[in-house]
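Pinned message: reference record for Succinate dehydrogenase/fumarate reductase iron-sulfur subunit
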Amino acid sequence: MNLTLKVWRQKNRNAEGQIVEYQVKDISPEMSFLEMLDVLNEDLLHKGEEPVAFDHDCREGICGSCNLFINGRAHGPEKGTTTCQLHMRKFSDGDTITIEPWRANAFPVNRDLSVDRSAFDRIIQAGGYVSVNTGGAPDGNEIPIPKPVADRAFEAATCIACGACVAACKNASAMLFVSAKISQLALLPQGQVERKTRVENMIAQMDKEGFGACTNIGQCAAECPVGISLENIALMNREFISAKATSNNLA
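Predicted structure (tokens):
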């Protein structure tokens, strides 16, 4: 396939960015989207031009690093798929593809298509952990957990922190990500020690980072590559109301 790419180029977070048009030729439909970008960068290097910076790591749909906005959709046109698992057969010969970074104040652009998602790390540091005794690893079946509870906790734990929920939300809200991390631990017996302080601290940090409020449109869940449910936001809201009514952790 021969394609026209309109790619966001920006030297750093303080520089002005712009869309730059490139042509790529002889792209195999079996290539992944990131492999197609690799071909573009090889062409640019051969021409003595700066390659396009973009985030990637595992390229297996696990790490959540491949955060690209493709033709106006987070991770591209295929539902339930990360950018690295999106294949070029989803496009047609002669297509024009617009590629942009995540757009959110809390995710400043590092360079080109690479953004700084360390705000998510700071939210996790604020409360996304459990208290455990040091020593050897405990047996996995030491604490009996009902299968339905374990399944719900696992579904929340599948969040890969890619930030697609933030990019898809008109308010740049991080509620789906934060609620998944809170729900995962609130449902399990290991997470009960910090249950109240966790939800208060993580939501406070989320607000501090500058993420927007949730208005229940549901675009976050629609674009989530691993299918995190909006039910987690409802659970987080209940956790927060309960914590604020019974805890003096935060004003």
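Pinned by admin. Summary line: The beta strands are 3-9, 18-24, 69-70, 73-74, 96-100, 109-111, 114-115.
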